[in-house]
Amino acid sequence: MATEKVAIITAGGSGMGAASAKRLAADGFKVAILSSSGKGEALAAELGGIGITGSNQSNDVLKRLVDTVTDKWGRIDVLVNSAGHGPRAQITEITDEQWHTGLDVYLMNVIRPVRLVTPIMQAQKSGAIVNISTAWAFEPAAMFPTSAVFRAGLASYTKIYADTYAADNIRMNNVLPGWIDSLPATEERRDSVPMKRYGTSDEIAATVAFLASEDAGYITGQNLKVDGGLTRSV
């Protein structure tokens, strides 16, 4: 009998996180969803999984999530780290407190749960971690200052992590969405995309599911842009 695979999705109550949870459940994963709004708990109930209401900025909440999952299912195969929205302002007007909030929202949201799941994945000799980042991590835009700054840091963190744990068969990759339908749509933003449309949360979820799957077993330390050609680099 095949072992049932288990996935944790943080900030998974809505948007790309929720879409990823639904896709992974459809692909046969047992899913556990963390969200601060309570929507993740409701979605997990629909999907026959575990739902916990709380913040991914709390080490105690994250430990409770991981302990609950391992107590029930005995393993963690996939961790998907989504995020909320951090402070936005003109670059020199962002306060110290807002920069620290951005750090919590866009970088520590990955670092905290990764510390908890890594020993479990090491013991299993397998695991995949997928972080939902941003297309503007490498071509930063003034409209998303804290996101761009800390997700550039996430790219560095991901490369170091991938190098460190590849021998344990643990992979980490980032998905870099552009304008997605979970955001307010404007003609200007749509026209800036070579494909002339917003992407969908389901398209991001499909990318997450691929990177979480064995089909992506030789991919680690990468930043995969899913933005309709909005940002490009050689």
| Strand composition percent | 15-25%
Mean pLDDT over all positions:
94
The computed structural class is alpha/beta
Strand segment count: 7
Strand order across the largest sheet: 3-2-1-4-5-6-7
- The helicity comes to 40-55%
Q: What's the quaternary structure here?
A: single chain
Radius of gyration from CA coordinates: 17 Å
What is the distance, rounded to the nearest whole angstrom, between the alpha carbons of the first and last residues? 45 Å
User: N-to-C SSE series?
Assistant: EHEHEHEHHEHEHHE
Instruction: Count helical runs.
Output: 8
Outline: globular
Largest sheet: 7 strands, parallel
The stretches of 5 or more residues where confidence is low (pLDDT under 50) are none
Protein name: NAD(P)-dependent dehydrogenase (Short-subunit alcohol dehydrogenase family)
Family: Belongs to the short-chain dehydrogenases/reductases (SDR) family.
InterPro entries: NAD(P)-bd_dom_sf, SDR, SDR_fam
Report what the structure shows:
The chain is built from eight helices and seven strands, in the order E-H-E-H-E-H-E-H-H-E-H-E-H-H-E. The longest helix is centred in the middle third of the chain and has 21 residues, at 145-165. Helix 2 links the parallel strand 2 and strand 3. The protein has helices at 15-26, 39-47, 59-73, 96-106, 108-124, 145-165, 187-191, 201-212, and strands spanning 6-10, 30-35, 50-53, 78-81, 127-132, 170-177, 223-226. The chain has a seven-stranded parallel beta sheet with strand order 3-2-1-4-5-6-7, sandwiched between helices. Helix content is 44%, strand content 16%. The protein has 234 residues and is of the alpha/beta class.
